[in-house]
Amino acid sequence: MSDRITIRRPDDWHLHFRDGDVMRDVVPYTARQFARAIVMPNLTPPVTTTALAAAYRDRIRAAVPAGVSFEPLMVCYLTDTTDADDLARGAAQGVFTSAKIYPANATTNSAAGVSSIEGLYPVLARMEAEDIVLCIHGEVTDHDVDVFDREKAFIDRHLRAIVEAFPKLRVVFEHITTADAVDFVLAAGPNVAATITPQHLHINRNAMLVGGIQPHNYCLPVAKREEHRLALRKAATGGSAKFFLGTDSAPHLRRAKEAACGCAGIFGAPFALESYLTVFDEEGALDKFEGFASLNGPAFYRLPVNEETVTLERADVAVPQYLAVTGEEIVPWHGGQTLGWKFLG
Ligand code: DOR
Ligand code: ZN
């Protein structure tokens, strides 16, 4: 068994940096491990225009520690009134790498999201023509649909139709959580891919609800049954180029998580590679790790792979229970646990 692994420097194809003081404190965790990251645009107000994205990108770049090379890749938050010309211009200028559908009220800061997916079809047609990648938070928000069924319902009600209507549109089904999503992505053409988070590879829904409510295991889409976790592990570690790394790192302060109405989101950035690599190791798939972490994402986004490398070695790493963000406590993913891989840089 190999005790060391060296791979091309990976990228994180889905995360949340927030803005202001929180952003300045969390960017270094990601920049330490990853060369690039797709930065989700669900700020208040959301990042809906090229000008807003360019300014946000400048603020992120200013938060990257000196001597560290890291590039944020920006995303346009789609709304019912998205200006397709501005989106196309922003993409042509290299400001936007993709655009994101948040069904209205599906998750944190998604109130301005898309209220009618069909209403967005003219924008999707333009994105297909301009070859702009579409990222999707794939959950319906209908109150009559059980929270555990919302991803599958989204596939049946919307995603299948989008992929049929726009056969050339590149679509990333974000943070998939079900065997249904795995099957959908595998059956679709090479223009459809998915990101998978570390938490959905490690936990099923029991981790959220057994032995008391565990808010630090709560994110959206929520973790599902064990059979779904096993399907995700097989997808991530199975060598298909359709699946790649996206932590969905979503920092919320401890007090906002441990509250009567706790926020959805897991702060996965600080020990992201250690977390993913543990899964690949358990699955006997260390040889598939570089593809998932460093090759499949750039291939799908048609960006160059990174030239630098990172190395991890087999060694105990104690993940702190809390980290300081804006002088307050935040609980990282695996907080208080010991992982078996150490990131050497
Ligand atoms: O758990 C989540 N947190 N899921 C999302 O889709 C959004 C994210 C956030 O921004 O906090
Ligand atoms: Zn997210």
UniProtKB/TrEMBL annotation:
The modification N6-carboxylysine is found at K100. SUPFAM superfamilies: Metallo-dependent hydrolases (SSF51556). Its cofactor is Zn(2+). The active site is at D248. Keywords: Hydrolase, Metal-binding, Pyrimidine biosynthesis, Zinc. GO terms for cellular component: cytosol. Pfam families: Amidohydro_1. GO terms for molecular function: dihydroorotase activity; zinc ion binding. It is an enzyme of class 3 (hydrolase). Residues 12-304 form the Amidohydrolase-related domain. One of its GO terms (biological process) is 'de novo' pyrimidine nucleobase biosynthetic process. Binds 2 Zn(2+) ions per subunit. It catalyses: (S)-dihydroorotate + H2O = N-carbamoyl-L-aspartate + H(+). Gene3D superfamilies: Metal-dependent hydrolases. InterPro entries: Amidohydro-rel, DHOdimr, Dihydroorotase_CS, Metal_Hydrolase. Pathway: Pyrimidine metabolism; UMP biosynthesis via de novo pathway; (S)-dihydroorotate from bicarbonate: step 3/3. Belongs to the metallo-dependent hydrolases superfamily. DHOase family. Class II DHOase subfamily. Catalyzes the reversible cyclization of carbamoyl aspartate to dihydroorotate. HAMAP family: PyrC_classII (MF_00219). Homodimer. This is Dihydroorotase. The lineage of its organism: Bacteria, Pseudomonadati, Pseudomonadota, Alphaproteobacteria, Sphingomonadales. The gene is pyrC.
